[in-house]
Write a structure and sequence with these properties.
This protein is an alpha/beta fold. It has one domain: Rossmann fold (3-Layer(aba) Sandwich). The protein contains six helices and twelve strands. The strands form three sheets. An eight-stranded mixed beta sheet has the order 5-4-1-6-9-10-11-12, sandwiched between helices. Helix 3 packs parallel to helix 4. The two termini are about 25 Å apart. About 35% of the residues are buried. The structure holds cytidine-5'-triphosphate. The site of cytidine-5'-triphosphate (CTP) has 15 residues, from helix 4 and strand 9.
């Protein structure tokens, strides 16, 4: 009988949800990502049984904050998410960046509540790009990890997705056109075109994010074992 121990399983990190960038103790910049898609992918990875699953979630509702059977990590900001991903990315591992990390953060975070009479101006500074940072780390890993991204676009969708595939040195990118009904952030369904590093592309028809999670895992497994 062959027993697969946790240590022998391939590690897959799945990020999910938005991040928050606070400019005072009670206010932040963020976006409407719910974490539903990342949660569905992580649940499918656990159900598959062959992975050590690390689920890194930004601030999402309790329903999507943890995945039973995964190692769960909760983070607030993009820099927190980067630290958690970096600490866990290993040689031969897989990173699925389904999260929508904030690209900018306030240059200054006031330790006390800003009053409206202060007429505040919020200056922003860029956050690190987690995939780009991991692409740099990946150059040192042997065997290299698989890096998988998502692109939510409203226009010139294919051009931007292919640009991200190249610039972030990804193995594959799942593009969704968020201007279409039943796709994107706050929707319970989604549809994708996946573009591979080698130029192939595959369409995923619109369906519930839970069902798509399994298809995305199957797609990653097929790529990883090719
Ligand atoms: N991403 C990341 N780090 C960031 C922002 C995004 O790793 N700071 C990842 C996302 O998780 C996603 C991919 O990069 O897998 C594309 O994210 P997206 O928001 O579509 O693209 P950006 O690179 O942020 O570019 P833009 O906002 O200009 O479209």
């Amino acid at each position: 009988m062959r027993v697969t121990t946790e240590a022998a399983k391939r590690r897959i990190i799945i990020t999910s949800g938005p991040t928050r960038e606070y400019f005072d103790p009670i206010r932040f910049l963020s976006n409407p990502s719910t974490g539903r898609m990342g949660h569905a992918i992580a649940s499918a990875a656990v159900a598959h049984g062959g992975f050590e699953v690390i689920y890194v979630a930004g601030p999402v509702s309790a329903e999507f904050a943890t995945v039973s059977g995964a190692t769960n990590r909760q983070v607030i900001s993009t820099e927190d998410m980067l630290r958690e991903v970096e600490a866990n990315l290993n040689a031969g591992g897989i990173l699925v960046m389904a999260a929508a990390p904030a690209d900018y953060r306030p240059a200054v975070r006031s330790p006390i509540k800003i009053k409206k009479t202060e007429n505040p101006q919020i200056n922003l500074v860029p956050n690190p790009d987690i995939l780009k940072e991991m692409a740099a780390k990946n150059r040192q890993l042997q065997p290299r990890a698989l890096l998988i991204g998502f692109a939510a676009e409203t226009h010139e969708t294919e051009k931007y997705a292919l640009g991200k595939l190249r610039d972030k040195e990804l193995d594959m990118i799942f593009l969704n056109d968020v201007s279409r009904k039943g796709a994107g952030f706050a929707s319970t369904t989604n549809e994708f075109t996946v573009f591979y590093r080698d130029g192939r592309r595959v369409e995923f028809a619109n369906e519930a994010k839970e069902a798509l999670g399994k298809k995305i895992i199957d797609c990653i497994i097929a790529y990883a074992s090719a």
